[in-house]
Amino acid sequence: MAEPDDAPLTWGQQDIWRAVLAAEPQDHYLNIGRVFDAPRKRPVTVERAAQALDRLVARHESLRTRLTGPRDAPLQRIFHEARPAFEVAEDEPAQQVCDRLAAVPFRYGEEWPLRAAFVTAGGHVRQVVLVLSHLAADGHAADLVVRDLRLLLLRDSLPPPPGPTPRELAGQQGSAEGRRLSGETIAAWLAEHARLDPVPPPSHPPGRPRFVEVTLRSPALDAAAQDVAARNRVSSSTVLLAAAMRLAGGLTGQRFHGMRVIVNNRFPAGRRDVVGTISQEALVVLDLRTESFDALVRQAWGTALRAYRLAQYDPCAMAEAVGAAGPGIRSFGCFNDQRLVQEDGAPRESVPGAAEVVRTDAMDRNICDFRVHVGGEPGRMEVSCYADTALLPPSGAERYLLDLERLVVGEART
Amino acid sequence: MDGELRERLAGMIAEATDGAVDPAEVMAGRARLSDLGVTSLAYLRLIDAVEAEFGVQLEPATLDGLDELVDYVRLHG
Predict the structure, then answer these.
(1) Number of neighbours of residue A358 by Cβ within 10 angstroms
(2) Cα separations in angstroms, A371 against A25, A211, A337, A384, B43
(3) Is the CB of B32 less than 8 angstroms away from the CB of A267?
């Protein structure tokens, strides 16, 4: 077999590697799990599914890539062939299999970045479980991998994947043009940092575990966000970002407040189907002193659209540059809308039921001290607030989420 | 000339939305793009596509409707 090829990491991979190092040994939180139903009309055997898995891995370079080299500056090592192991589960619910496989950190240097399981019944595969290392895929890439594997369960081949491979992307990013793009983006972020008011230092005794995540499950929030979005001709994601930032600014006492937003970076036509880790963070800075929440939402729309185009940069150079911006001059946490189906159409009816807030995760170490995640499904929106307890104790995080719901639901009624 | 540009830009809007918005619908109406269902992701694709094809950098504020977009590209292209 031909020798593997080594290449630098993409900027997105470097971002994830920094997050891995900051969270070890609890870096499994970065793993991406997906569960989907196998074809029902033409059921497949485990043998057929294993063949499809091999074809999937042959198709996408990132799925046969491991890490090599020093921990502080690893390279991606791309193999020409790979046979990822899979398990066959018979009496275990697929989601449980997924959670079990995702609960273990990847051994990035020794293991393939894809774990698979086939859940069977009556001799056929009923459901497929995939767990991906975040170094091999971001959320969008995971969806593309699922799409391809579904098709490969039905067909023997697919047209060659369009778009650059992670190795080619890393090459472009390391070129003079890539460095210029990164430099311009860093300069734009620094200009935005100059507008920020300082974030006060943490004022609470750190708890154990240090980081706690609480999650709000709200039947009312989805419909309310849609309602405010339709009124202002923006997306519901923008409404939630504006609300998250206004309340976070209330915690820090800032007028000019910044939050980072995860961007999938697939807007150029040639990059829509890239299977790899190319998502990075954008910086959105808002002036929170507006005459109304609607005005803040509209400001967030234009600002975010501009900011989303500035999410490709060398993350080490960026960290160094913004780290020198001055005491307390920093963005406050990260916002990530992970809804799989985010289609804003006609405003939805509010689903009856009371909101609940539950504690969903805890960690000892993390790269990020405040994070808001939006997930769930239409009509069952979930918003998580993950915070350093020194910054915001769990009771404060719960209050933050309930305030967010109250704000958006209240604005929907006006 | 303007007709061609208009048609091309309407097509690009439709492409950016993965076909969720029909080019004829964009051409026919005077509706705002957001009212036709153009999402932020589609706006970003459109901004990139217009920049690649016409070398024009669009500001989100210039993307209110097809007429504004045609005027902007004609003026700056």
Answers:
(1) 12
(2) 20, 11, 11, 8, 26
(3) no
**Test mutation, B39, B57, B63, chain A, max A CBs within 10 A:** B39
Are residue A143 and residue A203 in the same domain, yes or no?
A: no
User: B37: which residues sit within 8 A by CB, 6+ positions away?
Assistant: A345, B17, B20, B21
Q: Which CATH architecture has domain B2-76?
A: Orthogonal Bundle (1.10)
For chain A, the domain total comes to 2
Across the beta sheet with A5-8, the strand order is A5-8, A75-78, A65-68
A138 near A144, Cβ under 8 Å? no
Select the residue from A263, A301, A305 to test the B interface by mutation, using most B Cβ atoms within 10 A: A305
Reported as a pLDDT band with limits 50, 70 and 90, residue A352 is: low
Last residue of a domain, one of A125, A140, A169: A169
C-alpha A390/C-alpha A211 separation (Å) is 9
CA-nearest residue to B44 within chain A is A267
| Same-domain pairing of A196 and A298 | yes
> A235, B40: Cβ pair inside 8 Å?
yes
Chain A residues whose CB is inside 8 A of the B48 CB are: 267-269, 309
**ipTM score:** 0.73
Q: A240 CA to chain B: closest CA distance, Å?
A: 14
**pLDDT tens column, B26-61:** 888 667 777 777 777 888 888 889 988 988 888 776
A291: containing domain: 182-413
- Model pTM score: 0.90
Q: What is the distance in angstroms between the Cα of B42 and the nearest Cα belonging to chain A?
A: 8
